[in-house]
Amino acid sequence: MYYCTDTWFLLKLFGKDNKAKTILEGAEVGKDWVIIPIISYAETIKKLFQEGRSENEIDTFFSFLERANKVKFYMPDREVSKEAAKISLSFGLPLMDAFVAATAKITGCNILLAKDSDYDLLEKRKYVKIQSW
Amino acid sequence: MSELYRISEKLINSDILNINMQKHKFFVDKVRLGKKGQITLPKKIRDEDGFREDDVFVITHMPGGSTILEKVPQKKTSADQLFDFLEKLPPFDAEKAWREVEQERAKEHR
Questions:
Q1: What is the mean pLDDT of each run of 10 residues along chain A (133 residues)?
Q2: If we measure between CA atoms, which residue out of A18, A16, A20, A11 comes closest to residue A131?
Q3: CB contact under 8 A, B98 and A8
Protein backbone atom coordinates (compact mmCIF):
# COMPACT_ATOMS: atom_id res chain seq x y z
CA MET A 1 0.00 0.00 0.00
CA TYR A 2 1.22 3.51 -0.86
CA TYR A 3 0.03 6.23 1.50
CA CYS A 4 0.31 9.96 0.94
CA THR A 5 0.00 12.11 4.04
CA ASP A 6 -1.74 15.37 4.59
CA THR A 7 -0.83 17.54 7.61
CA TRP A 8 -3.65 15.91 9.60
CA PHE A 9 -1.82 12.55 9.65
CA LEU A 10 1.47 14.11 10.77
CA LEU A 11 -0.30 15.94 13.59
CA LYS A 12 -2.01 12.71 14.61
CA LEU A 13 1.38 11.03 14.72
CA PHE A 14 2.78 13.83 16.85
CA GLY A 15 -0.22 13.30 19.14
CA LYS A 16 0.83 9.63 19.57
CA ASP A 17 -2.10 8.17 17.67
CA ASN A 18 -1.81 4.39 17.55
CA LYS A 19 -3.40 3.96 14.16
CA ALA A 20 -0.94 6.44 12.69
CA LYS A 21 1.86 4.49 14.35
CA THR A 22 0.66 1.26 12.75
CA ILE A 23 0.82 2.90 9.32
CA LEU A 24 4.35 4.10 10.01
CA GLU A 25 5.37 0.63 11.15
CA GLY A 26 3.99 -0.78 7.92
CA ALA A 27 6.52 1.37 6.08
CA GLU A 28 9.31 0.11 8.25
CA VAL A 29 8.72 -3.59 8.69
CA GLY A 30 6.00 -4.20 6.12
CA LYS A 31 5.55 -3.55 2.43
CA ASP A 32 3.93 -0.13 2.68
CA TRP A 33 5.29 3.24 1.62
CA VAL A 34 4.51 6.61 3.16
CA ILE A 35 4.96 9.68 0.99
CA ILE A 36 5.07 13.03 2.77
CA PRO A 37 4.49 15.99 0.44
CA ILE A 38 6.93 18.72 1.41
CA ILE A 39 4.00 21.11 1.72
CA SER A 40 2.43 18.95 4.49
CA TYR A 41 5.82 18.86 6.15
CA ALA A 42 6.00 22.68 6.09
CA GLU A 43 2.45 23.13 7.35
CA THR A 44 3.04 20.67 10.21
CA ILE A 45 6.19 22.51 11.25
CA LYS A 46 4.30 25.81 11.18
CA LYS A 47 1.54 24.42 13.40
CA LEU A 48 3.99 22.83 15.84
CA PHE A 49 5.84 26.15 16.15
CA GLN A 50 2.50 27.88 16.80
CA GLU A 51 1.86 25.32 19.52
CA GLY A 52 5.11 26.34 21.19
CA ARG A 53 7.14 23.27 20.24
CA SER A 54 10.88 23.77 19.96
CA GLU A 55 12.85 23.40 16.74
CA ASN A 56 14.79 20.58 18.35
CA GLU A 57 11.59 18.64 19.16
CA ILE A 58 10.30 19.13 15.64
CA ASP A 59 13.58 18.10 14.00
CA THR A 60 13.80 15.00 16.20
CA PHE A 61 10.22 14.08 15.33
CA PHE A 62 10.91 14.21 11.60
CA SER A 63 14.29 12.50 11.91
CA PHE A 64 12.51 9.49 13.48
CA LEU A 65 10.14 9.44 10.51
CA GLU A 66 13.03 9.47 8.10
CA ARG A 67 14.55 6.41 9.75
CA ALA A 68 11.82 4.21 8.31
CA ASN A 69 13.32 3.27 4.97
CA LYS A 70 10.04 3.51 3.08
CA VAL A 71 9.06 6.98 4.26
CA LYS A 72 9.88 9.59 1.64
CA PHE A 73 9.55 13.36 1.60
CA TYR A 74 8.36 14.44 -1.81
CA MET A 75 9.35 17.73 -3.43
CA PRO A 76 6.81 18.83 -6.03
CA ASP A 77 8.24 18.83 -9.54
CA ARG A 78 6.77 20.42 -12.66
CA GLU A 79 4.42 17.51 -13.28
CA VAL A 80 2.93 17.68 -9.78
CA SER A 81 2.73 21.47 -9.97
CA LYS A 82 0.81 21.33 -13.26
CA GLU A 83 -1.53 18.66 -11.88
CA ALA A 84 -2.07 20.76 -8.73
CA ALA A 85 -2.99 23.78 -10.84
CA LYS A 86 -5.46 21.69 -12.87
CA ILE A 87 -7.26 20.17 -9.89
CA SER A 88 -7.24 23.44 -8.00
CA LEU A 89 -9.23 24.90 -10.89
CA SER A 90 -11.49 21.97 -11.64
CA PHE A 91 -12.36 21.08 -8.03
CA GLY A 92 -12.15 24.59 -6.54
CA LEU A 93 -9.44 23.45 -4.13
CA PRO A 94 -6.98 25.72 -2.32
CA LEU A 95 -3.63 25.34 -4.05
CA MET A 96 -2.11 23.92 -0.88
CA ASP A 97 -4.60 21.02 -0.78
CA ALA A 98 -4.27 20.62 -4.52
CA PHE A 99 -0.51 20.10 -4.17
CA VAL A 100 -1.06 17.34 -1.61
CA ALA A 101 -3.71 15.60 -3.71
CA ALA A 102 -1.63 15.95 -6.89
CA THR A 103 1.37 14.43 -5.11
CA ALA A 104 -0.81 11.46 -4.10
CA LYS A 105 -1.98 11.03 -7.69
CA ILE A 106 1.36 11.46 -9.45
CA THR A 107 3.28 9.23 -7.03
CA GLY A 108 0.65 6.49 -7.46
CA CYS A 109 -0.53 6.45 -3.85
CA ASN A 110 -3.57 4.28 -3.17
CA ILE A 111 -4.66 6.32 -0.19
CA LEU A 112 -4.46 9.93 0.91
CA LEU A 113 -4.43 10.14 4.71
CA ALA A 114 -6.42 13.32 5.18
CA LYS A 115 -9.38 14.77 7.05
CA ASP A 116 -10.16 17.91 5.11
CA SER A 117 -13.66 18.37 3.73
CA ASP A 118 -12.06 20.09 0.73
CA TYR A 119 -11.09 16.62 -0.50
CA ASP A 120 -14.66 15.27 -0.43
CA LEU A 121 -15.29 16.13 -4.06
CA LEU A 122 -12.01 14.51 -5.11
CA GLU A 123 -13.09 11.28 -3.50
CA LYS A 124 -16.58 11.49 -4.93
CA ARG A 125 -15.11 11.82 -8.42
CA LYS A 126 -12.72 8.93 -7.66
CA TYR A 127 -9.65 11.08 -8.14
CA VAL A 128 -8.06 9.69 -4.97
CA LYS A 129 -9.17 7.53 -2.05
CA ILE A 130 -9.20 9.32 1.30
CA GLN A 131 -8.71 7.66 4.68
CA SER A 132 -9.16 9.18 8.11
CA TRP A 133 -10.44 8.15 11.53
CA MET B 1 -0.21 -35.52 33.64
CA SER B 2 -3.91 -36.41 33.48
CA GLU B 3 -4.09 -35.81 37.24
CA LEU B 4 -2.48 -32.42 36.73
CA TYR B 5 -4.98 -31.66 33.97
CA ARG B 6 -7.90 -32.56 36.23
CA ILE B 7 -6.54 -30.29 38.93
CA SER B 8 -6.05 -27.44 36.39
CA GLU B 9 -9.58 -27.97 35.13
CA LYS B 10 -10.93 -27.58 38.66
CA LEU B 11 -8.74 -24.56 39.25
CA ILE B 12 -9.95 -22.83 36.10
CA ASN B 13 -13.50 -23.10 37.39
CA SER B 14 -12.66 -22.00 40.91
CA ASP B 15 -13.72 -18.46 41.81
CA ILE B 16 -11.35 -18.25 44.75
CA LEU B 17 -8.42 -19.18 42.56
CA ASN B 18 -9.46 -16.71 39.86
CA ILE B 19 -9.56 -13.91 42.42
CA ASN B 20 -6.09 -14.88 43.66
CA MET B 21 -4.80 -15.20 40.14
CA GLN B 22 -6.11 -11.78 39.20
CA LYS B 23 -4.36 -10.39 42.24
CA HIS B 24 -1.09 -11.99 41.18
CA LYS B 25 -1.72 -11.37 37.48
CA PHE B 26 -1.88 -15.05 36.60
CA PHE B 27 -4.20 -16.07 33.83
CA VAL B 28 -5.42 -19.56 32.97
CA ASP B 29 -7.60 -20.46 30.02
CA LYS B 30 -8.28 -23.41 27.78
CA VAL B 31 -7.50 -23.46 24.05
CA ARG B 32 -8.25 -26.09 21.46
CA LEU B 33 -5.69 -27.45 19.02
CA GLY B 34 -6.74 -26.91 15.40
CA LYS B 35 -6.44 -29.30 12.44
CA LYS B 36 -2.97 -28.15 11.49
CA GLY B 37 -1.70 -27.98 15.06
CA GLN B 38 -2.59 -24.31 15.47
CA ILE B 39 -3.73 -22.77 18.71
CA THR B 40 -5.06 -19.26 19.27
CA LEU B 41 -3.60 -17.28 22.13
CA PRO B 42 -6.47 -15.77 24.14
CA LYS B 43 -7.05 -12.11 23.31
CA LYS B 44 -6.54 -11.10 26.93
CA ILE B 45 -2.96 -12.44 26.78
CA ARG B 46 -2.29 -10.89 23.36
CA ASP B 47 -3.54 -7.50 24.49
CA GLU B 48 -1.81 -7.55 27.85
CA ASP B 49 1.58 -8.59 26.48
CA GLY B 50 1.24 -6.63 23.24
CA PHE B 51 1.58 -9.74 21.04
CA ARG B 52 1.07 -8.91 17.39
CA GLU B 53 0.90 -10.69 14.07
CA ASP B 54 4.35 -11.94 12.96
CA ASP B 55 5.76 -11.96 16.49
CA VAL B 56 8.20 -14.82 16.90
CA PHE B 57 8.06 -17.27 19.83
CA VAL B 58 10.35 -19.93 21.19
CA ILE B 59 8.53 -23.11 22.14
CA THR B 60 10.21 -25.27 24.76
CA HIS B 61 8.84 -28.72 25.25
CA MET B 62 9.52 -29.87 28.80
CA PRO B 63 9.86 -33.42 30.03
CA GLY B 64 6.50 -34.41 31.43
CA GLY B 65 4.53 -32.80 28.64
CA SER B 66 4.45 -29.11 29.59
CA THR B 67 5.14 -26.57 26.88
CA ILE B 68 6.47 -23.09 27.46
CA LEU B 69 5.92 -20.30 24.98
CA GLU B 70 8.21 -17.26 25.12
CA LYS B 71 8.22 -14.26 22.85
CA VAL B 72 11.54 -13.51 21.20
CA PRO B 73 12.37 -9.92 22.11
CA GLN B 74 12.34 -7.78 19.01
CA LYS B 75 14.37 -4.75 18.18
CA LYS B 76 12.36 -1.58 18.72
CA THR B 77 11.04 -0.11 15.49
CA SER B 78 11.72 3.55 14.79
CA ALA B 79 7.97 4.06 15.33
CA ASP B 80 8.44 2.67 18.87
CA GLN B 81 11.44 4.95 19.38
CA LEU B 82 9.45 7.88 18.04
CA PHE B 83 6.64 7.18 20.51
CA ASP B 84 9.15 6.81 23.35
CA PHE B 85 10.45 10.26 22.41
CA LEU B 86 6.94 11.76 22.13
CA GLU B 87 6.07 10.28 25.50
CA LYS B 88 8.58 12.64 27.11
CA LEU B 89 6.99 15.74 25.54
CA PRO B 90 4.01 17.64 26.93
CA PRO B 91 0.66 16.27 25.69
CA PHE B 92 -0.43 17.36 22.25
CA ASP B 93 -4.06 17.60 21.15
CA ALA B 94 -3.81 16.65 17.48
CA GLU B 95 -7.51 17.03 16.71
CA LYS B 96 -7.60 20.58 18.12
CA ALA B 97 -4.42 21.48 16.22
CA TRP B 98 -5.92 20.05 13.05
CA ARG B 99 -9.16 22.04 13.43
CA GLU B 100 -7.08 25.21 13.70
CA VAL B 101 -5.06 24.30 10.61
CA GLU B 102 -8.31 23.68 8.73
CA GLN B 103 -9.62 27.12 9.74
CA GLU B 104 -6.39 28.75 8.66
CA ARG B 105 -6.55 26.98 5.30
CA ALA B 106 -10.12 28.22 4.81
CA LYS B 107 -9.04 31.78 5.68
CA GLU B 108 -6.17 31.65 3.19
CA HIS B 109 -8.48 30.31 0.47
CA ARG B 110 -10.95 33.22 0.83
A1: 96 95 88 95 97 96 90 95 96 92 95 91 91 94
A2: A20
A3: yes
Share of residues in chain B with pLDDT > 70 (%): 75
Question: Which domains are seen in chain A, by residue range?
Answer: 2-131 (3.40.50.1010)
Q: Give tens-digit pLDDT for B70-80.
A: 888 777 888 89
Please tell me the distance in Å from B105's CA to the nearest CA on chain A.
Answer: 8
User: Residue A120 is which amino acid?
Assistant: D
Tell me the C-alpha distance between B87 and B98, whole Å: 20
- The β-bridge relationship of strands B57-61 and B67-71 is antiparallel
* Closest chain A residue by Cα to residue B95: A12
| From A15, A21, A97, residue closest to B93, measured CB to CB | A15
| β-sheet bridge partners, residue A72 | A35
Residue B1 scores a pLDDT above 70? no
Q: What is the ipTM of this complex?
A: 0.89
Name residue B41's beta-bridge partners.
none
Chain A contact for B27 (CB, 8 A cutoff)? no
* Confidence at residue A133, expressed as pLDDT on a 0 to 100 scale: 94
